[in-house]
């Protein structure tokens, strides 16, 4: 029998239960969904829970400043600002570009190599076991550039495996529209569901390599205690 995969326990209890104990270590997971579905909050909690448990993390924010990102995330009772710069590093796209030879200049394989080298430098410097890129849409050249997207994700996967790191890539694109869904190791689909006049946030895991997992749809709530996951009751409108 194959040996059990080592797990990166997200610390989000409901998600870990769905995944049978956590994300298989070194997996690259796409957290996809439209605006307001809780993607950034879930990814940030993934990093903070890791910091609490002794696993350093890096967040590369490509669309917001650090202050705006932190201001927009619900207050978490287990988050301490003293984590910043220690167990938790937040780097903007501008800082990443200014710290290198402007790697985002050209969308070709050498350009992708430079991006990976920049990310690897951050991972090594922070001794990071967890990585979040929010959003990956800004980093990848184009949704339709399947060859380059596949090349980037393949090299990123090899780099993360070398350093024993697990990654969450946040994307606005639905998995049906995004070719990267077929390349990543896992997909967490975030959605809005209207029911009886209420707009519910939902989460579903259609794909996760290396583990048996539930494919049911769940309702989530963003609270100061973190992302709460409950079963979506069937029936009703």
Key terms for this structure?
237 residues, alpha/beta, Rossmann fold, 11 strands, nine-stranded mixed sheet
User: What is the CATH architecture assignment?
Assistant: 3-Layer(aba) Sandwich
| CATH-defined superfamily | P-loop containing nucleotide triphosphate hydrolases
**CATH fold call:** Rossmann fold
- Round the Cα radius of gyration to an integer and report it: 17 Å
Number of separate strands: 11
> What low-confidence regions span 5 or more consecutive residues with pLDDT below 50?
none
CATH class membership: Alpha Beta
Specify the overall morphology: globular
Strand order of the largest sheet: 5-4-6-7-3-8-9-10-11
Q: What is the number of independent domains?
A: 1
Largest sheet: 9 strands, mixed
Chart the SSEs and their pairings.
Layout: E1 7-8, H1 13-18, E2 23-24, E3 28-32, H2 39-52, E4 57-61, H3 66-72, E5 88-92, H4 93-98, H5 109-126, E6 130-134, H6 136-139, H7 146-163, E7 166-171, E8 186-195, E9 198-208, E10 217-223, E11 226-231
Parallel strand pairs: 3-7, 3-8, 4-5, 4-6, 6-7
Antiparallel strand pairs: 1-2, 8-9, 9-10, 10-11
Helix pairs in contact: 5-7
């Amino acid at each position: 029998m194959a040996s059990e995969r080592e797990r990166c326990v997200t610390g989000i209890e409901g998600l870990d239960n769905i995944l049978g104990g956590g994300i298989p270590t070194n997996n690259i997971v796409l957290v996809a969904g439209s605006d307001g579905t809780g993607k950034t909050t879930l990814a940030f909690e993934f990093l903070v829970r890791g910091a609490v448990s002794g696993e350093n993390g890096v967040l590369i924010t490509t669309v917001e400043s650090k202050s705006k990102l932190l201001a927009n995330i619900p207050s978490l009772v287990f988050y301490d600002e003293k984590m910043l710069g220690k167990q938790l590093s937040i780097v903007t796209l501008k800082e990443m570009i200014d710290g290198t030879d402007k790697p985002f200049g050209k969308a070709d394989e050498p350009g992708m190599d430079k991006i990976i080298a920049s990310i690897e430098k951050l991972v090594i410097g922070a001794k990071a076991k967890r990585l979040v890129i929010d959003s990956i849409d800004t980093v990848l050249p184009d949704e339709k550039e399947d060859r380059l997207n596949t090349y980037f994700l393949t090299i990123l996967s090899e780099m993360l495996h070398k350093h024993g790191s697990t990654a969450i890539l946040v994307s606005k694109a639905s998995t049906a529209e995004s070719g990267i869904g077929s390349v990543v190791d896992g997909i967490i689909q975030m959605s809005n569901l209207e029911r009886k006049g209420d707009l519910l946030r939902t989460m579903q895991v259609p794909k996760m390599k290396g583990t048996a997992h539930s494919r049911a749809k769940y309702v989530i709530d963003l609270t100061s205690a973190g992302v709460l996951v409950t079963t979506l009751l069937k029936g009703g409108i």
